[in-house]
Amino acid sequence: MASISGTAIATFARPQFAARAQVVKGFSGLKSVSFSIQRNGFPSVRLQPAPRRFQVSCAQAKPETVQKVCEIVKKQLALSDDTPVTGESKFSALGADSLDTVEIVMGLEEAFEISVEEESAQSITTVQDAADLIEKLVEAKSS
Amino acid sequence: MSWLLRRNMLPLHSNSLARRPLASPPPLLPAPLPSPRETHLWYVVPDQLKDASLLNQYMDLLSPCERQSVLRMNGERLQKGALLARALVRTTLARYTDCRVSPKSFKFRKNRFGKPEVEWNKYDLWAPPPLQFNISHTSTMIACGVALDLPIGVDIEEKQRKTRNNILSLARRYFSPVEVAYLRTLADLESQRHEFIRLWTLKEAYVKALGRGFSGAPFKDFTIRLEASNSKQVTGESKSDASRIVVEAVDHPGILMNRWHFALFELNNSHYAAVCMERDVKDPADRENNSLKLEVWRTLPFVEDECVTETAAVKNIIR
User: Fold this and answer.
1) Of chain A's two ends, which shows fewer C-beta atoms within 10 Å, N or C?
2) Which residues, in sequence order, are bridge partners of residue A26?
């Protein structure tokens, strides 16, 4: 996992502003990049790790986890298939209100068989935050 | 760059690169200040907005920071909603300033929990009214409540809102035991769902009036319940007897938090709406538990305003 993250960060490193502009244009401006896991397994999700996370550590969740979180979020918020949801996506920018947020947390608990404390739930602002927390809880459960 | 982003966002015709200066928007219908214990509620229905040039007029009212926030929303529909919300707040507040402050001039700051409030400029010969406001939105409506001097919280939810999780599971997790018990007295799932939504709007309105929001005031720590006129607890069977709404801390049941009054009603046949306002403890009339007064307008800023207070657009009021 660590080496894949390393590759992803090197490939996707781009300034924050450009990433945002792409969100507005509906991702049509994204260059295609050779990131084989993404192409083969996850056509509807484009991974954009937050630029600040340069350390190659276990802090970043697996792509499958991010993908599953995206699915649950899209379902809860009834987003159309062409609405891009990525790790970077902020719940507030996706139109989630507080009821959506609690439903998403409950959906994630069910899907991953974990239990999220209220204080931890409050700190989640992006899909990536949720995925990272999930992996931490899953790991804690199995250890 | 901002023009480019704007062109991508709005359905403008393609040769509008040379920007024509916008005509100054038509004046807004001014409104008299809310009286004590009164909430003014202004709402806009996004689907009623068909005119792209109106979106441009609204965009022009926003601060650069607000524009960036709008454009960060994911997709055109959400961007339009965010834009309308800011335009609604600015135009609504401007109505109460006797034409002295334009919608564009307003400045805002946030309290320590993130609740927005007006930051007034200093005026030499005029004292700005101490306006308190709060907004709420769904994808099909945006509402802005205004009161004078005392904190206010507003929440709206679509009546037809479905939850993905089981209602009682949600309630057991997030509501107080008394509230869960109330929901369990409801015989059928549809009633349960409706009452859950209504309770949710009341609880949201309360934490927003407190200025703390959902993360600052855990829902589990307080109970909101409906009482009949004889002070008896309303159950599923008797919910039509509900004549007032009270809030109490879970740790101190029976000690009502009298500082707050509520109104719960149906808006536009499509939404439940809840308003929570702080009582003025210095005002003897307020201490006598007189209920909240409500005035409601449907608006499309710069296009039309309609007072709907005594109409079918506002019904089933409990306060």
Assistant:
1) C
2) none
What global pTM score does this model have? 0.81
Quote the tokens at residue A81: 């298939």
Q: How far is B36 from chain A (nearest CA, A)?
A: 30
Domain containing B281 — which CATH number? Answer: 3.90.470.20
The answer to whether the beta carbons of residues B261 and B291 sit under 8 Å apart is yes
pLDDT (tens digit, 9 = 90+) per residue, B173-232? Answer: 999 999 999 999 998 999 999 999 999 999 999 999 999 888 888 999 999 999 887 778
Structure-token match 């009546």, residue found:
B159
Distance CA B106, CA B121 (A): 8
Are A103 and B81 an interchain contact pair (Cβ–Cβ within 8 Å)? no
B139 backbone dihedrals φ, ψ, rounded to 5°: -70, -15
Residue with tokens 């929990």: B113
Q: Is A126 an 8 Å CB contact of chain B?
A: no
What the block records as the tokens of B180 is: 């869960």
Nearest CA in chain A to B76: A24
Domain coverage including residue B31: 3-318
DSSP calls for A6-75: HHHHHHH---HHHHHHHHHTTTTTPPP---HHHHHH-TT------TT--S-STTSPPHHHHHHHHHHHHH
Answer whether A122 sits within 8 Å of B215, measured CB to CB. Answer: yes
Query: Considering its fold, how many domains does chain B have in total?
Result: 1
Cite the active site residues of A: 97
